[in-house]
Specification:
There is one protein chain. This protein has one domain: Deoxyribonuclease I, Chain A. It contains eight helices and 14 strands.
């Protein structure tokens, strides 16, 4: 008998309404996925289009207070035991107001495993935003470690806004002083993995050159001048049963990011 399978898709849609208009949810309907995690939905509750609520899924959204900005979504075929919106709902010991007002975290709990959709801040717009990004990173690692200490497996899906290694972006030399590839960001990411978390795509494809985001400038997507900043990170127990990870064909464009797909030999 074949083992049970769980399939997860993650994507920064750069506007859920825009992605829906470009056929994202028609594509998703053929993927037979158990979980869909989205980032940067850029919509309030009353602005979610009907086609972005596919039948057969429990849909959850976290919206930014600022209109047309950030926001995450999490779709589950199986009803979760609990859903947590915002970091503060999981960790009231830290001050997360600056992050939670931007709608950057959703967590769905199942028996023994939690699935997380998270959107890390970008620091590219200003030094102030970079400082906020670094503050977020300082808080995030102990947060996720405490969550792991609850003896739950974790699958963290998101746009992390960091290219970890040189192979994770095309023009690494010219980006060494740019947000997303700063030495301190990369060192932080290494520390996260050293703490026992696993980058599923890199575990299954240790030498592959593949990107998940491309600038809208200079025909970057056509020329494949990209960055790998979208990840599926999980605890070792889930890493052991991961059987597939891929980045969807960049030529089928739903946003400036490509969907990530992964499969585990387990079920929820």
């Amino acid at each position: 008998m074949a083992p049970p399978l769980m399939k997860i898709i993650n994507c920064n849609v750069n506007g859920i309404r825009s992605a829906a208009a470009k056929g994202f949810f028609q594509w998703f309907s053929h993927q037979n996925a158990d979980i869909l995690c989205l980032q940067e939905i850029k919509a309030q509750a009353h602005q979610i289009p009907e086609e972005a609520c596919p039948s057969g899924y429990h849909a959850h959204f976290s919206h930014a207070e600022k209109a047309g900005y950030a926001g995450v979504a999490l779709y589950c075929r199986k009803k979760p035991l609990a859903v947590h919106e915002g970091f503060s709902s999981v960790d009231p010991t830290q001050d997360w107001r600056d992050i939670d007002t931007e709608g950057r975290y959703l967590q769905a709990d199942f028996e023994g495993v939690s699935i997380i959709s998270v959107y890390f801040p970008s620091g590219s717009s200003s030094p102030q935003r970079q400082a906020r990004k670094m503050s977020f990173l300082e808080r995030f690692l102990p947060f996720i470690q405490r969550l792991r200490e609850q003896k739950r497996e974790l699958i963290i899906c998101g746009d992390m806004n960091i290219a970890h290694q040189r192979m994770d972006l095309c023009n690494w030399r010219s980006n060494r002083k740019n947000s997303g590839f700063l030495p301190e960001e990369r060192a932080w990411f290494s520390g996260w993995l050293d703490a026992g978390f696993v980058d599923i795509y890199r575990r299954l494809h240790p030498r592959d050159i593949a990107y998940s985001w491309w600038s809208n400038r200079g025909q970057a997507r056509a020329k494949n001048v990209g960055w790998r900043i979208d990840y599926l990170i999980c605890t070792p127990g889930m890493a052991e049963c991961a059987s597939m990870a891929s980045i969807h064909d960049r030529k089928e464009r739903f946003s400036d990011h490509a969907p990530l797909l992964a499969q585990w030999e387990t079920d929820l």
